[in-house]
Design goal:
By secondary structure, the chain is an all-alpha fold. It has 11 helices and no strands. Helix 7 packs antiparallel against helix 8 and helix 10 packs antiparallel against helix 11.
Length: 245
């Protein structure tokens, strides 16, 4: 037996692909029709929002679609995750634009740890380049560095506000999902948002409170503590902490 939601999304993709290959068919109208007939399929909302965001360059419309999708499908983990990624990607686009114009420097991301986050970063590679690098001949040019740091802090704070809002909404809508918490935590680990470490601790504490009786949580936490990317000097302490857990 096939999953009905999978079949629905597959049919939607085929239908939209036909629309794309026929210039006389209005893709926006097609998306509206698909949403009208399949409002309970999360992938439909994600596809429509992605079209507005990536192809139509209409961030407001993409945000409205994702928020409406969350209203209709509040327990969809994929919707919560993709909504957060969209908002953070848009914020980083604004940051990248300012850097490109020479008005600012830095980005809102750090090296991702999970394969999913690496894939997300690869798909948005143009956004996550080391935009702060200027070249050797810029050495000593520190004029306006304080102002630039303040702008960076504002972006980081705004990004954290977005994360906290989406995280709170997701936990309230799907309180019993360990997988959703892990996915949101992994996204946070790929950022340079303000109070990053404090937020990580808060999420881990929430997870310990809500999932302490689930072996899967302790297995994930132990693996997280023994992350393969840590240096050789830090392996023993991390293993000891994992064993204590």
């Amino acid at each position: 037996m096939y999953d009905c939601s999978y079949v629905s999304v597959l049919c939607v993709c085929i239908y939209l692909r036909v629309c794309l290959n026929n210039f006389f068919l209005n893709i926006l109208q097609a998306l509206a029709n698909v949403i009208r007939f399949h409002p309970k399929v999360p992938g439909v909302w994600i596809y429509a929002a992605a079209w507005e965001f990536d192809h139509n360059l209409n961030v407001a419309a993409a945000r409205a679609l994702m928020q409406e999708g969350l209203r209709v499908c509040p327990t969809s983990e994929d919707l919560w995750v993709e909504y957060l990624r969209m908002e953070l990607t848009y914020l980083n686009k604004l940051k990248a634009r300012k850097v490109a114009l020479g008005e600012d420097q830095g980005t809102l991301t750090r090296d991702p740890r999970s394969s999913d986050e690496k894939h997300w970063r690869d798909e948005n590679s143009e956004l996550f380049m080391p935009l702060g690098k200027r070249g050797d001949d810029d050495g000593g040019a520190n004029v306006g560095s304080d102002e630039s740091e303040k702008k960076q802090e504002l972006f980081e704070e705004h990004g954290m506000n977005i994360f906290q809002t989406v995280y709170s909404g997701a936990v309230e809508a799907v309180p019993s999902s360990l997988s959703l918490r892990k996915r949101l935590f992994e996204i946070l680990e790929g950022t340079n948002l303000s109070h990053y470490e404090d937020m990580c601790k808060e999420i881990l504490n929430d997870m310990k409170r809500d999932f302490s009786t689930q072996p899967e949580f302790w297995d994930w936490l132990a693996r997280h503590e023994c992350d393969l990317e840590i240096s050789e000097e830090g392996i023993i302490p991390q293993v000891e902490k994992a064993v204590q857990v």
